[in-house]
Design brief:
The N and C termini lie far apart (134 Å). A nine-stranded mixed β-sheet has the order 24-23-25-26-37-36-33-29-30, sandwiched between helices. A seven-stranded antiparallel β-sheet has the order 9-8-7-4-3-6-10. A five-stranded antiparallel β-sheet has the order 11-13-16-17-18, covered by helices on one side. By secondary structure, the protein is an alpha+beta fold. 14% of the residues lie in helices and 34% in strands. The protein folds into three domains: 134 residues, Immunoglobulin-like (Sandwich), CATH 2.60.40; 134 residues, Immunoglobulin-like (Sandwich), CATH 2.60.40; 237 residues, Class I glutamine amidotransferase (GATase) domain (Rossmann fold).
């Protein structure tokens, strides 16, 4: 009897069981997406700006939400969908007119979605099968990947209209690494480079052009510049400035040296006077930014008209007395006034640029192309330094000026060296006709005594002998090192006898000239070498014979 009762219980239990449906047999309850605003009328939102922070969320009755598809456009059928994991995003509506209306669409995705994809992936909802649209062209290509479980995991679309108005663009002149606006050189010749950064909250692609003006913002004074250009150089050729007085028209150039191209002309650049540049930007809705200008308050931009064939560059730091910058400059003015009449005032009365005065305010921020093109306004450059030359400033501009076969510039470079010096090979040899500078104490001298001679050692070039000045204290702050000329260069000067730091007498090579007679490098400050009165003769030789 007991076994019979057990059997009946088992039979009834089996009969009472029903088969549980699988996931595929259960109908999925679609997830639902929500946007963060609930206007009574979908058309009642006020005009907004094109960049907005939008929010959304999703709910699923029989599971959980794993992500969203978000799109912006005019209609749901044409929208480009992007997969998002987060519940918010800062978006820019693609506004191309003064005012327009856009729709934001959001679809929730529940846990029936099995494929793994990254946040920000482009998704195409094709009628046959959704897929990852790597090319973002709406067409299924070989590289694209289908998403077979996505369709069943998608919920209905939440959407909202957003009326958008154009936001005027803005523009700022470039800033340096200290986040300070870059000013033009306090004094420049007829070459100056400006750069800027434009911005539009409607998308930088809506910027259509920049405009600049010199000294006057009258309607006919603005020069249009393509929206892809954010650096220009104002350039006045010597053929124009040499015969001009007052104001001139400057070429507007884009690009760096070797790739510069004229893209317009700017009227009203004042010669031997202060100047100001104005800048604004225009967008596709024809809105202009506020006008900005340089120089800023408290700064100066003076444009000097070149008058000479020779540019003298002061790269010199010293204290007071005979070696002070003012004393050395006065010395060179006196020496150049003694040059032969055959050389002419175009060299004797030189133009001048200081790299060290006023905390470097005369150095162009963009050495390329501003300093390179400035050098090329002159036939000759005399660059003189103390024991700390600005190698990084000199390197590329002097190479392009005096080494590049496409130019014809000629350079006289005079310098001393520091007590201890890291190998300057990487910078000096890029532009000077030397392979190296000695680093050995055996070939480094700290003092040249009175009457020490500097002899011409070239058998071809007729340079005059030079001599240190009588007062040893004048030249006791400099250090002299042996120069090793390039194989194609010619040594031209040596110090006849000098004592090294290790108390060894030696005769270092201190003068070298390149194979093309375009670059003379002197490893001694030339203002120290007029002890025998021959320094004017040296300059006559350089500028009257070697560089003729």
């Amino acid at each position: 009897m007991r076994y019979f009762q057990i059997l009946l219980i088992v039979v009834f239990a089996i009969a009472g069981c029903k088969k549980s449906p699988t996931d595929s047999e259960m109908k999925n309850s679609k997830p639902q997406a929500f946007l963060w605003i609930f206007p009574n009328n979908p058309d009642s939102l006020a005009l907004g700006i094109s960049k907005q922070h939008i929010h959304w969320w999703g709910e699923d009755k029989d599971g959980y939400v794993v992500g969203f598809l978000v799109g912006i456009g005019k209609s749901e059928t044409s929208v480009e969908w992007i997969f998002k994991i987060r519940n918010d995003s800062v978006i820019s509506f693609p506004l191309l007119t003064v005012q327009d209306t856009f729709l934001v669409f959001v679809k929730a995705i529940d846990n029936h979605f099995r494929e793994k994809i990254n946040d920000g992936t482009n998704i195409a909802l094709a009628a046959s099968h959704p897929f990852i649209d790597y090319e973002n062209d709406g067409v299924f290509n070989n590289n694209d990947r289908t998403l077979p479980t996505l369709q069943n995991a998608l919920g209905a679309t939440a959407k909202q209209k957003f009326p958008i108005k154009n936001t005027p663009p803005t523009v700022k002149f470039e800033i340096n690494s200290s986040n300070v606006t870059v000013q033009p050189s306090e004094t420049s010749f007829t070459v100056v480079t400006f750069a800027w950064r434009g911005n539009d909250n409607d998308g930088d692609n809506t910027i259509t052009k920049y405009e600049i003006a010199l000294n006057d913002t009258a309607t006919n004074n603005w020069v249009s510049i393509d929206s892809t250009v954010n650096m220009i150089t104002l350039f006045v050729p010597r053929a124009v400035s040499d015969i001009a007085t007052g104001s001139v028209t400057a070429d507007v150039m884009k690009g760096t040296y070797g790739n510069t191209r004229k893209i317009g002309e700017a009227h009203g650049l004042r010669l031997n006077d202060t100047n100001r540049i104005f800048l604004r930007v225009k967008d596709i809705a024809e809105d202009y930014s506020p006008i900005v200008s340089l120089p800023d308050s408290g700064f100066l931009w003076y444009v000097k008209k070149p008058k000479s064939k020779l540019l003298v560059i002061e790269d010199y730091v010293a204290s007071s007395g005979p070696n002070s910058p003012d004393s050395v400059l006065l010395f060179y003015k006196n020496i150049f006034s003694q040059l032969a009449d055959s050389i002419g005032d175009s060299v004797r009365v030189f133009d001048f640029l200081s790299l060290r005065r006023n905390d470097g305010a005369f150095i162009p921020f963009h050495l390329d192309p501003a300093l390179i093109l400035t050098l090329q306004q002159f036939n000759f450059v005399f660059w003189y330094a103390g024991q700390e030359p600005s190698w990084s400033v000199a390197s590329n501009p002097l190479f392009q000026y005096a080494v590049d076969p496409a130019t014809n510039g000629k350079v006289l470079f005079s310098t001393a060296f520091q007590f201890s010096i890291a190998d300057p090979r990487g910078s000096i040899v890029s532009f000077a006709p030397i392979e190296a500078v000695s680093l050995s104490d055996d070939s480094t001298a700290t003092r040249a005594y009175a009457d020490t001679t500097v002899s011409n050692i070239s058998t071809i070039l007729n340079f005059p002998p030079l001599q240190f000045k009588q007062n040893p204290s004048i030249h006791s702050l400099f250090f002299y090192r042996n120069l090793y000329p390039r194989s194609t260069a010619t040594p031209i000067y040596k110090i006849d006898s000098i004592v090294s730091k290790t108390h060894r007498k030696f005769s270092p090579t201190v003068g070298v000239i390149d194979a093309n007679n375009r670059f003379v490098f002197m490893g001694v400050p030339l203002h120290l070498l007029n002890g025998n009165g021959n320094l004017p003769s040296f300059f006559n030789t350089v500028f009257g014979n070697i560089f003729k």
